[in-house]
Amino acid sequence: LEATECEVLQPLWADYGSISRLTISSRSTRSTNSPAPKTLILKSITPPPVKGSSPSESHLRKLISYEVEQHFYTKLVPLLPESTPVARCVASATPLDSTSKQNITTILTDLREAFPIAAEEQRSELSTSQVHAALDWLANFHGFWSTRNAELRSSRLRLPPLEEQAAGTFTKSPGVWLNGGYTYFATRQSEYKTLQEDSDSPWREVLCSPLPDPLSKKSIAELVAAIIAPSRLSSIPNPTSPYETLLHGDVKSANLFTTPSPSSSASAAFFDFQYVGLGLGVCDLAKLFTCSVPMSMLIGSGDGSAPRLKGKQSKLEMREGERRLLERYRQTYEKVSGKAYPWEELERHWNCALVDWLRFQAGWGFWGNTYWLEARVRFILADQEWTKWMQRT
């Protein structure tokens, strides 16, 4: 095969490289049973020079993320069933390390041949069928990996960037993140400090102040983070370990392709796996629901009615629309994994995921279904049963 054209599709965040589409053709005219695809995707990482005497946490996070992504495509994607479509790796270069200026290059199959609709290009909310397709993809992905924890932990798990740097382990090291996503508490201490110091934020006192518990001086933000964080050692599980799976880590419409949906159904495929790692699947859903799901699908009751969120102190219990989406996810997850995920447990984990996601947004900046998220978290924090469970856990 040879590339006959290279079209740059977009630069990577903060100018760390680019994504291009290669048009390819075969050098041989021999017929084959499996014709080569017409296009491939080239992801090329070219990190900018480090500013100052030492790299920032953000810079280290990005470098590790590209190693993680290549590990995922080369080692884990071949294990996935066809029911969970993901781009396949055609070729890859040696990963970069903390000092090398060497590029990291990954060539992937082009998802748009089978999934031609880029959700981000619609410039509108996801349709109902697209939301369902995204949810089904996540349930299949999470369900598949929930029974393969030992395989995921067989490679060294990547720690928070500053920990890797301090331990001297920031080198070529295959594996996914210990904690999937890029917003988890251990890697967002600067944002948490910003929230602690923000006297104008209504969330500072609620999330950051130590609870009146003589046995613990931790805040709600710290307790929730501890509950949903994967155990560092498989030999020392935590209460949520039975539900641990592999997270996509950056679930949003910008990372989603779908099929056309002239009827009531569509299929979907996610891409961009820089922050793939261990965690509770509902943590992926928290970002999806906040950033990509239409508000009407979350707060609708099924009878056409929906509450009005009034002011900054509104509290909102789970509505039928939100419940239906979570139940759809739960049923598919159980079918794929072969494991029960009782509604009571899922709802507790879901509440934690929403509180944790709000903690990040409160320190970083709000976007998406902000009123819904804040109203839901106010209701959750007022739920004494959930609060008691959280403190016991």
TrEMBL record:
PANTHER family on file: PROTEIN KINASE-LIKE DOMAIN-CONTAINING (PTHR11012:SF30)
Protein name: Aminoglycoside phosphotransferase domain-containing protein
Pfam families per record: EcKL
Ranges for region Disordered: 26-56
Ranges in coiled-coil conformation: none
